[in-house]
Design a protein that fits this description.
heterodimer, A: alpha/beta, Rossmann fold, Alpha-Beta Plaits, six-stranded mixed β-sheet, four-stranded antiparallel β-sheet, 33% helix, B: mainly alpha, 26 helices, globular
């Protein structure tokens, strides 16, 4: 099966400034794929390169097997796109704006377009300049979705949407995947990716740090362990244990990060009078931060 | 308790830099002010050099004075008052006020309309206003920064004027005193400030674009009312409203001072600035008076594709320019008979005109427009091209081009189609002006078709300028397209103005595209020149499309 997105050592630099470096990524058809990273990590640069809006310095990107620089029109025919920031025509109404993009594409199903407008609760009679940020985002989403593209590429799609509309959007994403279509969305809101994505990638300073299933990513995280004792306990009793790091003592409480088995911790703690033992499962956010704080070369599977 | 050490903001960065709103205003406007100062000071110096080269003898000066004072009022509309034309200063202030008093203020309009309104629109103002500074103080610091820069420009003009007198004096009386130079600089500064103050007062109510448009229109109308009050019947009624008329007797380079006339000018600016500050202080940030422009008919909205969309987006701008220029052309065309009468009543002038323009019927609407309108038309059509090309570029600079190009359409095709839409808007601009000319010509029983067809020349000239913009925008970056057109427009105007006066080689004069378009208002066409313009327009679009297909998008 041809991958929906495949990049091969995709690199984009802006003179001396870093953009993205050797990004290797494969997104399969039917996947909802989250592209995570903090501001300035290279998410938008990657997306713009995928769409041939900017050209790679080296490497290449393929969308459904088509080299994005060789035949961008063929790529665009199959893609729906929402930029991270955009401004449209101030004087056009929402309806006119949506119609214009439908005309540029051709073959848009009017009933489906109308259903999207209804589901997003968008008043299409108002001029674009009169819309709030959230309503502008809804117009952008309708434009991206209305032609039922094979691949959705969405840059920060929930930006400005209220929680109800976010829910509507995630429903639409799930319907997209159920149809066998693909969605690639960038975000820095990790709970979004956690709820909807099949797989996620983390990009850090222009390099891909990790690509994996959401569950696997969480498994990789260090647990946060908190031990409460009746009296003072030396940190040295735990620091040397396998998988333990960042041991901090505060009054009679020890906090540490633990990877791997808990048995050595339990055995060491049993030598003192232990009042409480808390091991917290990490959120994806903590995983993300942990991955982000590690060196790029330490990451797990690359290229997914 | 931990003592928190707060770093003091130094005086230097408060005055210039990021230490205060005032300092940042100065810092942000440095490049624009440098350009305006160079333009105004350069103009005065080149005008001095051109005058001393062209009128080096007392006889030449006397002939010029005789011509200037016998010219019908219609010809003098864009000039200053012809006083002391036997001196360098008198000639400069008579011949070249348009750039100093009509073009330089455009900077002030743009800057003062944007200083609060643009920041409010993009949201940065809200961050400024949540710092411990009152709204009034923020507005006052912005105004203070602008006033400082206007004062700087006035000082540069004063120094350049004094220097011009010292460097290019060829006859007795040519030297320009420090007092005259200072008075001229002050006048220039105030005339730059007033239109900007109008825009500043209106911006909190109407938003940046409308405030700037109204201020610019009022400035042009005020200038024309003053210049054409004796040439066009009915205009004189409005002269008390024109601030150019208030200072009509203050001509320092001709040795005439009316210091008192500057007071109302300064007061007007102060009141308008105060209105702007108070309006900003009292109104919601970024909230403008709801002004619903009429919806465009669906057939004109242009949703079928990039050509119709681009055309539709540029249409209001083209129509606005067209109506403004067309009304002016209409008034000139209807004045042709009175001009002919004025010339025939003066035998000396009649003979002079026949000698200067042996084949031109200066009593016909076309002849009048050829003499007093076409040069102006090339300049304002050029400015229209700047706004049309800026609109074309906004697809990319606003970021919407990313969405447009994510549809199945090549970049080259988009560039060509949106460019064609812009060219169509130029056709509309020319048609509207031609309609104004035709109505004026018919009203006085003259030939309407020839001068109306003459608008083809400014139209192809404008298309060529737009083509340059498309080429620069497509090849390099979109945000450079409009400045490139502005540069070519001004360069063309200045070449046309100064190269003959400085007696420089004709080959240099021929660099101005406008010199290759014949005398179209009287039906004398320069076909190769027209084809050259069309060729530049087509090539510019092709180069732009080629460049666009090869570079990264910027937004």
């Amino acid at each position: 099966m041809t991958a929906a997105i495949q990049t091969e050592k995709l690199t984009k630099t802006y003179g001396a400034h870093r953009g993205i470096i050797d990004v290797e990524l494969t997104v399969d058809e039917g996947e909802i794929f989250g592209f995570l990273g903090p501001n300035g990590a290279g998410k938008t640069t990657t997306i713009r390169t995928l769409l041939d809006l900017i050209r790679p310095t080296s490497g290449r990107a393929l969308i459904f097997g088509i080299d994005t620089t060789a035949d961008p029109v063929a790529v665009h025919r199959r893609v729906g796109y929402l930029p991270g920031e955009f401004a449209l025509y101030d004087r056009l109404t929402g309806r006119q704006t949506i119609d214009y993009f439908a005309n540029l594409r051709g073959g848009v199903d009017g009933a489906y377009q109308a259903s999207l407008i209804e589901r997003f609760d968008l008043d299409p009679t108002r001029r674009f300049k009169e819309y709030s940020k959230g309503n502008k985002q809804k117009v952008g989403l309708v434009i991206a979705l209305q032609h039922r593209p094979h691949l959705l590429i969405l840059d920060e799609p929930t930006s400005g949407l209220d929680p109800l509309m976010q829910q509507t959007f995630f429903e639409l994403l799930r319907e997209t995947a159920a149809d066998g279509r693909t969605a690639f969305l960038s975000s820095h809101i990790l709970s979004e990716a956690e709820k909807t994505c099949h797989r996620v990638a983390i990009i850090r300073e222009g390099r891909l740090v990790m690509v994996d299933r959401v569950e696997a990513l969480r498994d990789l995280a260090h647990h946060q362990v908190e031990l409460r004792f009746s009296g003072p306990v030396p940190t040295s009793a735990f620091e040397a244990l396998p998988g333990v790091s960042e041991v901090v003592s505060e009054d009679h409480v020890l906090r540490m990060r633990v990877s791997g088995a808990m048995t050595p911790i339990v055995q060491a703690a049993a030598r003192y009078e232990l009042l409480d033992f808390v091991s917290r499962e990490p959120s994806l956010e903590e995983t993300f931060l942990a991955q982000y704080s590690r060196g790029a070369g330490d990451g797990g599977d690359r290229g997914g | 308790m931990v003592a928190i050490e707060v770093a003091e903001v130094g005086l230097r960065v408060r005055l210039y830099g990021l230490g205060s709103v005032y300092g940042k205003t100065i810092r942000d406007s440095r490049l624009a002010v440098l350009l305006v100062a160079l333009l105004t000071a350069g103009l005065v110096s080149v005008a001095g050099a051109a005058t001393s080269a062209a009128f080096a003898t007392p006889e030449a000066r006397r002939e010029l004075a005789a011509l200037a004072t016998t010219l019908p009022a219609l010809f003098q509309g864009f000039y200053g008052r012809p006083l002391a034309l036997e001196t360098l200063g008198g000639i400069i202030e008579w011949r070249y006020p348009v750039i100093l008093f009509l073009i330089a203020p455009v900077w002030s309009i743009v800057a003062l309309s944007a200083t609060l309104a643009s920041e409010a629109r993009r949201g940065s103002l809200e961050l400024v206003l949540v710092t411990p500074a009152t709204r009034r103080r923020v507005a006052l610091e912005k105004v203070g920064g602008h006033l400082t820069m206007v004062a700087l420009i006035a000082l540069v003009v004063a120094v350049a004027t004094w220097f011009t007198g010292a460097a290019f004096a060829t006859l007795p009386g040519d030297a320009i005193s420090v007092q005259a130079a200072f008075a001229f600089g002050l006048l220039t500064g105030l005339l730059i400030l007033v239109p900007g103050a109008i825009a500043f007062a209106l911006a909190p109510l109407l938003g940046r674009g409308m405030a700037a448009g109204i201020a610019a229109a009022l400035m042009v109308v005020a200038y024309l009312v003053n210049g054409f009050q004796s040439a066009i019947s009915g205009v004189a009624v409005f002269t008390p409203l024109s601030w150019y008329t208030w200072v009509d007797d203050h001509i320092p380079l001709a040795g005439r001072y009316d210091w008192a006339s500057l007071v109302p000018l300064a007061l007007l600016a102060a009141v308008l600035l105060a209105v702007g500050v108070v309006a900003f202080d009292r109104r919601d940030v970024g909230s403008t008076v709801p002004f619903r422009s009429p919806h465009m008919p669906r057939s004109l909205v242009g949703l079928r594709g990039p050509i119709s969309r681009s055309f539709s987006e540029r249409l209001p701008v083209a129509m606005t320019w067209g109506i403004g220029i067309g009304l002016y052309a209409l008034v000139l065309a209807t004045s042709s008979q009175s001009l002919a009468d004025a010339i025939h009543q003066n035998p000396v002038l009649d003979e002079l005109m026949r000698n200067l323009f042996p084949t031109l019927d200066y009593a016909s609407p076309g002849g009048v427009l050829q003499l007093v309108f076409l040069e102006f038309a090339f300049l304002v059509f050029g400015f229209a091209a700047v706004t049309i090309v800026a609109g074309w570029a906004s697809d990319e600079t606003s970021g919407r081009l990313e969405l447009l190009l994510s549809t199945p359409r090549t970049r080259a095709r988009w560039a060509i189609e949106s460019g064609l839409g812009a060219y169509l808007s130029i056709v509309v601009l020319a048609l509207v002006v031609a309609a104004g000319i035709a109505i004026g010509a018919v009203a006085v029983g003259g030939d309407a078709i020839t001068p109306a067809l003459g608008m083809l020349a400014p139209a192809v000239f404008t298309a060529a300028l737009a083509g340059v913009g498309f080429a620069v925008g497509g090849l390099l970056r979109a945000s450079w397209a409009a400045p490139a057109v502005a540069f070519v427009t001004l360069a063309t105007f200045l070449i046309d103005l100064f190269v003959p006066a400085l007696k420089l080689p004709d080959s240099l004069h021929e660099l101005a595209l406008s010199t290759h378009l014949g005398r179209p208002m009287v039906g004398e066409w320069d076909i190769p020149g027209m084809l050259l313009c069309l060729g530049i327009a087509a090539a510019g679009l092709a180069v732009g499309a080629w460049g666009m297909a090869r570079r990264d998008l910027r937004s």
